[in-house]
Amino acid sequence: MSSWLERDKSAIWHPFTPLKGMTEPEMLERAEGVNLYTKDGKKIIDVISSWWVNIHGHSHPYIAQAIAEQANKLEHVIFAGFTHEPAIRLAERLLDILPDNQSKIFFSDNGSTATEVAIKMAFQYFHNQGIEKKKIIAIDGAYHGDTFGAMSVGDRGPFTAPFDPYLFEVEFIDFPDADKEDEVWKHFKGLVESGDVASFIFEPIVQGASGMKFYSAELLDRMIALAQGHNVICIADEVMTGFGRLGPLFAADLLEHKPDIICLSKGLTGGVLPMGVTSCTEKIQEAYRSNDLMKTFFHGHSFTGNPMICAAANASLDLLLTDDCNNNRERINQRHLAFLKQIENHSMVRNARVIGTILAFDINTEKDTSYFNEARHHLYPYFIEKGLLIRPLGNVIYLIPPYIISDDDLDYVYTTILEFLNSY
Ligand SMILES: *Cc1c(COP(=O)(O)O)cnc(C)c1O
């Protein structure tokens, strides 16, 4: 029998991983709290919450128990024509904590489907009313997922090149860097006032995959207000920012003008099982409430509203809404801010930044700053060797830890990063 890693290599195609020349994956045995434990006995602290999802850490016993109990009671059922308590409770609880203007929950499977649903919901909103509006605005550098609609409204680059001919047309505005705000505002205003814009999709305040880039909440607020004044549906993709990542429960809590549609996933189930949610306002539903069957929203997935996943999400919400969790997010923020002071003037560091539980900075390399920047290939194995899962985006190092990470673990993470900066 060949080794597990040989068997993996022969049978499995991993995400975002080249088939040739890939670094060998770590073979995991188990995970608990912030720690991943490999089969050969190594401990790795998961400082990025495994692709930004595990907000309460790994194998949380409370969430595990909720899933097990639900699995023994009602594990799955078709969600058209049937409903159940875990889904109803989850929808009500989400509406309780989402901005007041949100009034309906549509379930799907992940972050990409949550944005697909949002885009389709917005286009059909106009279609159902016989209004011709074709354009959609997105922001340069955006990431909304890997399915075709989500890719279309995302950044066009090396990752999308093979599919570019098949992606639909989108009006991209520049990323509103501080020195570009006036320019971006003018471009946006011109587009919105043209009258042909159906929707505007954005990652509120922080663009994640493009490298944890922050932009002005005040500007976004003005853009939403202007867009809504012209009947443009504003879609906030809170797949990364949702569930406390920026401090408050949602990025929308930092805005005065609330989006029409909100997309959620990642932290929704505590990162334990996949689920997407698209919430919307009464105004959106109005266009679908009709005796005409053809105005139905014809969208669904086999596992929509799966009871075990709803149970996991309900358990995760229980944990999220405790004072403990709130205090932990505040504590991480304070610790990040203190570390920021330590590194912001370091010669290897550019643009150090903190919002909520996210800390990010750019490595000062002379070279190209794209994802393929060489920095990344040195950094990832360097930190794994030190027992830290840190997965740089190009030359951007970022921390997005589970909220339960201890002060001691944070100390170790900060010290290791400083050592690295001093030796680079
Ligand atoms: C991760 C992410 C997605 C895609 O979510 P998946 O569950 O990976 O499909 C969409 N939007 C944002 C902002 C994300 O960070």
From TrEMBL:
One of its GO terms (cellular component) is cytoplasm. Its EC number is 2.6.1.62. Catalyzes the transfer of the alpha-amino group from S-adenosyl-L-methionine (SAM) to 7-keto-8-aminopelargonic acid (KAPA) to form 7,8-diaminopelargonic acid (DAPA). It is the only aminotransferase known to utilize SAM as an amino donor. It catalyses: (8S)-8-amino-7-oxononanoate + S-adenosyl-L-methionine = S-adenosyl-4-methylsulfanyl-2-oxobutanoate + (7R,8S)-7,8-diammoniononanoate. It comes from Roseivirga spongicola. It is an enzyme of class 2 (transferase). The keyword S-adenosyl-L-methionine applies. This is Adenosylmethionine-8-amino-7-oxononanoate aminotransferase.
